[in-house]
Design brief:
Number of strands: 7
Helix content: 55-70%
Strand content: 15-25%
Shape: elongated
Length: 375
């Protein structure tokens, strides 16, 4: 009877043996947890010398793709900026050539009258201050450069040409001063201790008023005896991709040098979406013929003395306009090259990003297949 009662109570709870086993397991688990907590709170110090160096973290594919995408976006923005600067330079070139064309009639009439007066006074002794040759002990260099960069080698070429001329004059023992038109040349020579008489900013659209200010300063310096010769350094416009620095004597004038051989007018055109230049040769203006019995209210010598400053003014305006056209053409070429380089770099980075994306997708597929095979 006692065994049957015990047998009837077995399903209601574990036997003493099972209870002992469970208690031991619980005690062992508690000890293990306590030891782990103790080891985590107070780690055992190990010698650092025996610790191997960590390998560099491998690049994450997602980060590379994001970096490439950001670079492509910045390159596209840069290309938009350079393309816009190219179009702005083209518009300014058109305005500059329109100004040259508008000023052409006045220059032609001035050359006609000046040539007629020189022909009338050819047999007379011309005694004008602007025509007197003096021993060059002091020279004034009028340098025309740009206000800004991003125009290729335009500023570097005119600065190099001016430096060579400056060294030549100093080697001959000639005192040199400068009148600068443009910030780039002014800052360059000012930092090197070259005396600057006056500085003018290069205007976006040169006018006769600007040329008058420059010519007045030049004539005052020459007539006051502060310099014996004035030389003009500017950039001669050759084509849209080429320009040549040039030097010419502005004052004193030569009676033979006034009779120039003509001029060229450059026109910016577009053909099939590309910019080009058309050259128009302008013949020299024929000298105006005065009747032998024509009576002048003023003596021809006085008229010539009054017209010569206008002629110098026109020459300065023409050279500044030509230098500005050369600068704008150089900026157009530089911005076109920058846009082309940005496009090529964008294509290369896009190809690289696509390859990285394909590699990432392939890696994910291989991991999925390997996991499926392992299961």
């Amino acid at each position: 009877l006692r065994r049957s009662s015990v047998t009837q109570r077995d399903p209601l709870g574990p036997t003493p043996t099972v209870r002992t086993t469970m208690l031991r397991a619980f005690t062992l688990a508690t000890l293990v947890a306590a030891a782990a907590a103790f080891n985590g709170a107070m780690p055992i110090a190990r010698p650092t010398a025996a610790r191997p160096a960590r390998a560099p973290a491998s690049p994450v594919m997602g980060e590379n793709i994001l970096e490439l995408r950001n670079r492509i976006g910045s390159i596209k923005n840069t290309k938009k900026i350079t393309s816009a600067m190219k179009l702005v330079a083209a518009a300014k070139v058109r305005r500059a050539q329109d100004a040259v064309i508008r000023s052409r009639p006045f220059s032609e009439n001035l050359e006609k009258v000046l040539g007629g007066l020189i022909a009338r006074l050819k047999n007379e002794a011309l005694d004008f201050p602007l025509l007197q040759e003096r021993e060059a002990k002091s020279v004034l260099l009028v340098v025309v450069s740009g206000e800004r960069g991003l125009c290729g080698g335009y500023n570097a070429q005119i600065i190099k040409k001016t430096t060579l001329r400056l060294n030549e004059l100093k080697a001959q023992g000639v005192d040199v001063k400068m009148l600068t038109i443009g910030k780039k040349a002014n800052n360059w020579f000012k930092r090197r201790g070259v005396p600057i008489v006056k500085y003018f900013e290069t205007p976006n659209a040169p006018t006769s008023e600007f040329a008058s200010e420059v010519s007045d300063e030049v004539l005052n310096t020459f007539l006051s005896g502060e310099c014996d010769r004035v030389e003009l350094l500017y950039t001669s416009f050759v084509s849209m991709i080429a320009s040549t620095p040039a030097v010419r004597t502005l004052v004193p004038l030569s009676p033979q040098g006034l009779e120039t051989d003509g001029d060229e007018i450059f026109k910016l055109t577009t053909k099939e979406g590309k910019f080009g230049v058309e050259r128009e040769k302008v013949a020299r203006a024929d000298a105006k013929e005065f009747q032998p019995d024509m009576i002048f209210e003023q003596a021809p010598a006085q008229l010539l003395n009054a017209i010569l400053p206008l002629y110098i003014n026109g020459q300065i305006l023409r050279t500044v306009q030509e230098s500005l056209a050369s600068e704008l053409a150089a900026r157009m070429s530089a911005m076109q090259a920058a846009s082309d380089n940005a496009g090529e770099l964008g294509k290369a980075l896009t190809l690289k990003m696509n390859r990285a994306r394909q590699a990432a997708v392939t890696q994910e597929l291989l991991e999925i297949v390997a996991g499926a095979n392992a299961v």
